Amino acid sequence: MIPGPDKIIECPKCKGLARVFTLISGNTLGARRWTDGKMIAPMLPMPPAITKCRHCGHYFWVSDAKEVGELPLWRDKSEKIPSHWESSKHIKELSESEYLEAIRIKVAKNREQELYLRICAWWAGNDPFRFKSQGVADHPESVPSRSSEARMNLEKLLELLDVTDPEQRLMKAEVLRELGRFDDTICLLESNYPSEYMGVVITIRNLVQKKDSMVREIYE
């Protein structure tokens, strides 16, 4: 992984500054993948597409923010950088409750943005269980029920996911599994998938047979 310079952006509402890291190059070595489609790749970190201003609390899409400059990785001592650029903080990933709030106040401008928010809210809700030991996660009592708003998010996500797209169809099957709708999951898994998805299809099918509704890591 080779990091690039941090971009300095300003909040569209209050003009407060924030940093966005960039990459010159990266790779998926050491990446971990889960049944809900999330991948964590230490050598390929990706900045969030949406964030919450640390100054005023405004939610905004990073692509909508004005770029005012960048902080080079290396510079000579004679190069002057504004002190308020230096003191700015990196944009942060939203929490589950923040993603759900962004959905609730209609930050999404189109279907693609709504889909992104709903998937990210789902992933954020699953995050506390990704790194639990397998033994602990196998006990149903260790899995708290989702909030009504989180379940509603999954129901809305089912409506948005396009079954003609194999990736979204597989994601829809996983949503159904996590909601405990195992028969519906199997129906979606029985359709044709490209070969690159078959490992995930088999993993999810095996979890359905065990009546397991937990997010699980995929081992390939």
Mind explaining what this structure looks like?
With 220 residues, the chain is of the alpha+beta class. It is 38% helix and 15% strand. The protein contains eight helices and ten strands. A three-stranded antiparallel beta sheet has the order 3-2-9. A three-stranded antiparallel beta sheet has the order 6-5-10. Strand 2 and strand 3 form a beta hairpin. Helix 3 packs across helix 5, helix 6 runs parallel beside helix 8 and helix 7 runs antiparallel to helix 8. The model has no long low-confidence stretch (mean pLDDT 91).
Strand content: 15-25%
Radius of gyration: 20 Å
How much is the average pLDDT? Answer: 91
Largest sheet: 3 strands, antiparallel
- Total helical segments: 8
Label the overall shape: globular
Question: How many β-strand stretches?
Answer: 10
Class derived from helix and strand content:
alpha+beta
Cα-to-Cα separation, first versus last residue: 23 Å
* H-E order: EEEEEEEEEHHHHHHHHE
Helix content: 25-40%
Strand arrangement, major sheet: 3-2-9
The low-confidence parts are none
